[in-house]
Amino acid sequence: MFIDTNALKESGLGRIVLFYTKKNKRVSPAIKNQADNLVAAWSRPILKRSASYRDRTLAIADIDPTSARKAVKLSQILAKGRAEEVGRVRRNAVRIPGREMAAFNVVPRSNVGISGLGSQQAHLDVERRRAAEARLRRVQRKVDLNKKHASRM
């Protein structure tokens, strides 16, 4: 269902749909899901975003080879962590980790397929896997032969 931004503002329907998206005892889960889907569908044209994942564009970070990353020592990292812990009050030491999805605004540049270190590394990984599979097949054959010999006795 396509809806224009101006029509949505004038109708006041957006406020009602947003009410149903909030956590409320009176709202059934089915209605909440429908309201969430409507908000997702209606917010895309307002934010001028496409519904297609392929149309999504992200900035790609370029690595500057002239600037070397500073070597940070472990003692510096631990000292920084201790300094942050000084003012914090810890009532309970146990914390259940939350489920968090990473959202990137800038993605790293892929070096797969470039005739450089990435493609060489990929080639070495493929060769390493093939060698490991061949070793596994040889060991499996020996195990099978030993089982046959043991069953004959």
CATH T-level fold name of the domain at 1-61 = Transcription Elongation Factor S-II, Chain A
Biggest β-sheet description: 2 strands, parallel
The CATH homologous superfamily name of the domain at 1-61 equals Conserved domain common to transcription factors TFIIS, elongin A, CRSP70
Helical fraction: 40-55%
Strand content: under 5%
Specify the overall morphology.
Answer: extended
Structural class: mainly alpha
- CATH C-level of the domain at 1-61: Mainly Alpha
Number of helices: 5
Count of DSSP strands? 2
CATH architecture of the domain at 1-61: Up-down Bundle
> Any idea what the radius of gyration is?
29 Å
Order of helices and strands: HHHEHEH
End-to-end gap = 75 Å
Spatial sequence of strands, sheet with the most strands: 1-2
- The overall pLDDT, averaged over residues, is 77
Low-confidence stretches: none
Please sum up the structure shown.
The chain is mainly alpha-helical. The chain contains five helices and two strands, in the order αααβαβα. Among the domains are: 61 residues, Transcription Elongation Factor S-II, Chain A (Up-down Bundle); 42 residues.
